[in-house]
Amino acid sequence: MTRLTFIVSSLAHPGGAQRVMSIMANYWATKGWSITLLTMDDGSESPFYDLHPAVKHHALDIAGESSNPIEGLINNLNRLQVLRRAIKESDVEVVISFIDQTNVLTLLSTWGMYLPVVIAERIDPTHYHIGTGWNLLRKWVNPRASYVVTQTEAALSYFSERVRKKAWVIPNPVVLQWKPQKRAISFINNKRKKSVLSVGRLSEQKGFDLLLRAFAMVSPRHTSWSLIVWGEGSSRACLEKLRDDLGLYGRVYFPGKTKHPFEKMRQADLFVLSSRYEGFPNVLLEAMACGLPVISADCPSGPREIIRDDVNGILVPPENVEGLAYAMDRLMSDETERRRLSLRAVEVRERFGLETIMEQWEQLIGCAIGNHSTPH
Question: Which of 57, 120, 122, 126 is 20 to 30 A away from residue 167, measured at CA?
Answer without folding.
Answer: 57
